[in-house]
Amino acid sequence: MLPTPGPGAAIARARPRASVARDRWVALASVAPALLIAGLVVVGGIGMSAAQSVGLVPLVGEAAFTLDAYVANGDELLTGLALSLGIATASTALSCVIGLAAAIIITQGRVTGRVVAALSALTIPIPHLVGAASVGLLIADSGLIPRVLGIAPTAWPDLVGGPWWVAVVLEYTWKESAFVALVVAGVLATRVARYDETAALLGASRARRLRHVVIPLATPAVIVSAIIIFVYTLGSYEVAWLLGRPYPEPLPVLAFRLFTSITLTSRPEAAAVAVATTLVSLLAVAIGMALLRRTPLWK
Amino acid sequence: MSASLALDALTKTFDGADHAAVDAVSFSVAPGECLAILGPSGSGKSTVLRSIAGLDVPSSGRILVDGADVAGLAPERRGMAMVFQRPLLFPHLSVLDNVAFAATVAGQPRREARADATQFLELVQLAGFGSRPVTALSGGQEQRVALARALAARPRVLLLDEPFSALDPELRSDMHALLAAIRAQVAPTVVMVTHDRDEAAIVADRVALLKRGRLLQHDAVERLYTRPVSLDVSRLMGGRIELAGVVRDGAHVSAIGRVAAPEGETWAEGSGVLVVRQEAIQVAAAGASAPEGFVAVDVVVADRRARGPRAELALAISGAGSVVEAATDQATDALADASPAAELVAEVPASRPLAIGERATALIPRSACTVVAG
Questions:
Q1: Residues 6+ apart with CB under 8 A from B194
Q2: Within an 8 Å CB–CB cutoff, is residue B302 touching chain A?
Q3: Are the beta carbons of A208 and B101 separated by less than 8 Å?
Q4: How far is CA A94 from CA A2, A101, A119, A169, A180, in A?
């Protein structure tokens, strides 16, 4: 029997275009306040920093265009940039690898998977500051772990405040791998099980299924997570400040120190560091989106 | 690519379930044969298929492929491929790489795997589609690629889990023809799950009919229609005529009178329900006499329903009372029990002008009749 359209279908067909257009305006008006506030903060904040960094909004004196703020701390800016990129890259790479592994374990649906999912979910609401303090208390040379293991502080490696920023990367990895795990598990859970069964029935072993099916299916979610993590760890201040060494400074720590400096002329320099950080972040997002567009799934 | 398959008392009870989803199901499939597992929703047919594939672990029973028990073998080591209701083509691979998947994961060089896959794309009449992304295919094309991908794995048994049920009728017909062509060329052993008895009849050599996890009948398609072993089978196969009565001296006595068993068949003595396919009933003018091998029954058209090019007639049996009088007490009771069903159903061309209230003669071929337990 051919299906007969119900009254709802007739009404839907009869809806005038004007009504649809009105609905769109209503929807736009509903989100406009949120958009305006977010736009003001993001665009306004970046605009203000950019203007301040080129001398257009001085705290004292006449406004005049100059790039002095960018040159004043040139060496520190470059060192900080290299350091920030290193921390962000290491944290992002480790978070993605560990998070992807955790997501795969979660989607297996066994007891281990449920435990990993619970641990990941518990990690998310803990603030970075609390995480950083905990990591410091655990792995500093006078921390809990060396004490429990009976290792003297002099024999314990410089994980906190050391030359390799291990504690900083560790804290970011702990927190962000949980984020990757939950995001990727959410994506995999909805689609991977049937594909995994199909691949198994086509003769693919567990390892082959992981390589040829699961990882390719998870790649877009991993890339999106990686973009978020990279940009966050590049611009995050408190963890690097708490667990890092005083010099060299990553970009956000440098920017904050200059911003809170008693020297009034440092304010444009702080803005210059912030603008440089923003530009690098935008570049990272652009590269990430280009990678995402190259994935077959995105196409 | 063709192995024999046998199920021996396969049972599957899911955790926390009151009863078995599959209850001691046994059947066998010869190499190159196509078996349809037919049944309504919840009959356990997909569970049987998933157990054969190794995706579900049976609670008890054996699954034998070429005589060897495959218990404990992981799905990837059973040599089976499955096509699901959704094509489940890998979205990150092209059409060709989807078909080449089994060869790729088996470690074949990519060039060889793709060359092999090309043959199977040709087999499903999709030559030239290899470089396309899977998102550029229609629903029917996707299912063809899924079929090619499964065949390219050279499965010992090809499992089809309602693979065509999401397609429109025209595409389904095309897929049935394609499956027939593939069977003619590579003769795979096929086990297909379906809830559509017409599809089972078109595609399969034999049918295993399931209800509530139990195997009701495993037989050739034609016999399921004409020689059902129970009322359940008759009803599940769409049988509409059930005439309660009694078998006495080798003949069934009911509202339509005495019907002798067909040549070479015997019916068990005692109460029984005579079933006959509505498609077998011929409707002749009132007063027509019965040709050799037919039983004539005077009827009145009680209802008429349009069925596209056919019309379905409900035929009230006239003169049932006299038959009842002639029957034994046992038959009388049986007929009294069956009074709401004491009518025949027949299908005639829609163009035939038989109106409600019109008298006619129903001609029932004895060879189409069978008696099952009530």
A1: B36, B37, B38, B162, B165, B200, B203
A2: no
A3: no
A4: 57, 11, 17, 9, 11
Three-class SS of residue B270? strand
Gap between the terminal Cα atoms of chain A: 39
CB atoms A201 and B159 under 8 Å: yes
Which of A201, A209, A213 is facing B82, going by the closest CB pair?
A201
ipTM above 0.85, yes or no: no
CB B27 within 8 A of CB B209: no
The CATH number of A73-294 is 1.10.3720.10
Task: Check whether the bond before A248 is cis (ω within 30° of 0).
Answer: yes
Cα-to-chain-centroid distance, residue B239 = 13
Residues B267-323: tens digit of each pLDDT: 999 999 999 999 999 999 998 988 999 999 999 999 999 989 999 999 998 764 444
Query: Could you tell me if B348 lies within 8 Å of chain A, comparing CB atoms?
Result: no
Mutate to test the interface with B, among A198, A209, A222, A299 (most CBs of B within 10 A): A198
Q: Which sequence spans correspond to the domains of chain A?
A: 7-53, 73-294
- Under the banding of pLDDT at 50, 70 and 90, the label for residue A60 is confident
Taking an 8 Å cut-off on Cβ atoms, the answer to whether A212 and B150 are in contact is no
B window 156-175, beta carbon within 8 A of A = 159
Smallest Cα–Cα separation from B159: which of B212, B81, B71?
Answer: B81
Sheet containing B214-220: give its strands across: B80-83, B157-161, B189-194, B34-38, B206-211, B214-220
